[in-house]
Design goal:
There is one protein chain. The chain is 30% helix and 22% strand. With 200 residues, it is of the alpha+beta class. Helix 1 packs across helix 2. It is globular, with a radius of gyration of 16 Å. It binds cobalt (II) ion (CO). Cobalt (II) ion binds next to helix 3.
Length: 200
Amino acid sequence: MTHHDSAYILMDAMKLRLVYYPDPILRKPSAPIKEVTKELREAIPQMFDLMYGHRGIGLAGPQAGVPQRVVVANIFGDPKKKEEEKVFINPEILDRGGVMAEEEGCLSLPGLSAKIRRSAWVKVKYRDLDGQAWELQCEGLWAKLFQHEVDHIDGLLMVDKMTAADLKQWRPLLQELEEDHAAKREPARKRTRRVEAAEL
Ligand code: CO
């Protein structure tokens, strides 16, 4: 059985579902987490399953319908690499610098990819599931991931940061997603290509 198959079986049994653009859930800033409750602990493995099932490397609470400041990530996107699984509680960007504009994709915007202008490095602060506080500075893919996911918990999406030309180019896809949402169906269009290591 492939990863893909097993992920689908897990998804069937799950309560959480992936939330797609333009669902208003994605636009509401998420609440800070005061305490890691039993419910949140139970939601986290489901968030990982949802992320792997859609071949992502990062997923923010609101994308799973959990309006809390929690992010899960596995930079390899490989469910076998459990040791690479990270959970970020209340992630915050403390400082940033430089500029990069690299291709990104978003699990909530299936089929879309665009270069987004981001800071080249960020200094971030978060807590882990044990309540331990961490501060670290990162660049490259991790910097991109943190900026993308913190945007999610602030209610922001890639479409807010795309160039006017990219928005125009992607309007037909956005229109389809808007129609799918209005008709209460899963996005009709299958992802046509994988955005290498950047489905967030
Ligand atoms: Co995203």
